[in-house]
Amino acid sequence: MTPPQRQRHAPGESPPPEPAQAKEGELPNPERLYVVAGADGNRADLDLVTLIVARVEDPPPSATPEQAALLRLCAAPLSVAELSAYLSLPFSVVTVLLTEMLTAELVQERAPIARQALPDRSLLEAVMHGLQRL
Fold first, then answer.
1. What does each C-alpha distance from 125 to 112, 118, 121, 128, 134 come to in angstroms?
2. pTM over the 0.70 mark
3. Which terminus of the chain has a lower count of CB atoms within 10 Å, N or C?
């Protein structure tokens, strides 16, 4: 197998086309993610189903655009997975952003609502009797 050959351009020719921008559904440029997340490797212990809710209504002036978007989305509790999907950012980047916001007390984390293993028997009986009366 032969390696691909480099194409040379004459001085009067136009430069090669610029690389294509990330299309919808593709991940953004990795350098951009590094800039968004920063070099700090500290992360809060967040799970995909951890609920995040904003503690403040308006983002502070020092907030990045991504943090401001997170605050707007977190007016009602949302899981970290939902936030990651809405912002089209990887989970790891959202976790770093949320860690910064948790330390600044801009957002609050909540444990996900756990379902009971078995439904309450009295509730099921009440529903059953109500359906029988119909």
1. 28, 14, 6, 5, 15
2. no
3. N
